[in-house]
Amino acid sequence: MQYKGDLDFAKALDRNDELRSFRHEFHFPQRNGRDAIYLCGNSLGLQPKNTRDYLEKELKSWQENAVEGHFSGSHPWVSYHEHTKETLAALVGAKTTEVVSMNNLTTNLHLMLASFYQPNGVRRKILIEGGAFPSDHYAAESHMRRMGVDPDENLICLKPRQGELYTTEEIVQAIKEAGDSLSLVLLPGIQYYTGQSFDLKAISEAAHSVGAFAGFDHAHAIGNIPMNLHEDDVDFAVWCTYKYLNSGPGSVSGIFVHEKHSADPNFPKLTGWWGHEPKTRFEMNNHFKPALGADAWMLSNMNILSMAAHRASLDVFARAGIQKLRDKSLQLTGFLEFLLKSDPVVSERIKILTPTDPEQRGCQLSIFLTQDGKEIFEQLIEKGVILDWREPNVIRVAPTPLYNRFEDVWDFYSILRGIFAC
Ligand SMILES: *Cc1c(COP(=O)(O)O)cnc(C)c1O
Questions:
Q1: What are the residue ranges in the chain where pLDDT is below 70?
Q2: Whose CA is nearest to atom 15 of ligand 1?
Q3: Cα angle at 153 between 152 and 155, to 5 degrees?
Q4: What's the whole-model pTM score?
């Protein structure tokens, strides 16, 4: 697309945006008497207006049905997770039996590590990235310690050869170099700091070629970019739902387990009664019979209030469709990049860390401020822009196609320009 650096152009794009009405389905924080310019959906997504109804419905069911709510009402709690499967499967490119909503992200990562990290003989290494999100690093490290494996020698913390970004070739090469010693590759779908996306298919293929598993943390990918986890032959994935999925602070997480693994009833896993085949679960006979697919990894009965908020949000996503969202996202972030790069007042004071290739990123641009970073960030906040700060000098800007307008991108740019110009 040929972009133009003016407000009328932004407004024209908004008028032609077939997803424009979705913005009105969200609550915006108010700043300086107007909707905040909210570019922080990568950290906490906005509240959909339908969330309250979904929550109230379950509060009412609890009030009126009490324990009978497990089996009565329009969405009995005992099978509530069934209602999130279809949209999740579409978002990550999986079969409905390969995904399930449960627990929180780091908890699920531990459950996946318990299944997919099985050090054996020389095969004991885990490859992660050097700049991994701390929770992911700690989780991998702690599984090694628990299994008597020394992380200092066996946790490969890959660093980019140059600068902040990786090439697929260097990741594949590191996997091949680790060879027989490699048990698991654990990488993000999109790196939280730089916004770089990874080639799931090439990485999974490389891992499998040396006999290792490939698992991904999709905290920053789900609801942001379309994925094909099943076809790409990913072994497992985890995600949270409070970022792009707008399911509320600390809301329920989710997992993907490829059906080739769940088909094996003896595949190692930590188990609980909720992972038992539902039909015979309540026979309570202490002979674990795994539920179908990813459901076998469930431990506990669900946090229904959190699931209700999750379902409310997924129902919005289902109506928008991830491919349409991605199409708009490419333009929205492309417009942001164009504005930042084409104006010397701005471009001379920043460096964009995120890849310029749209195929290697989602909606987020990570912007390194060359000087006075923290003050600039604070002025942006004061002027009604909500975005995210990362040490040492980086603002992460995430225009989300579901509720952000091209005009928001323009407003952010012109406020930033104003700060630089004075
Ligand atoms: C947001 C995020 C987390 C947060 O973990 P919780 O268990 O939900 O607190 C973990 N890992 C990555 C990569 C994230 O982006």
A1: none
A2: 219
A3: 75
A4: 0.97
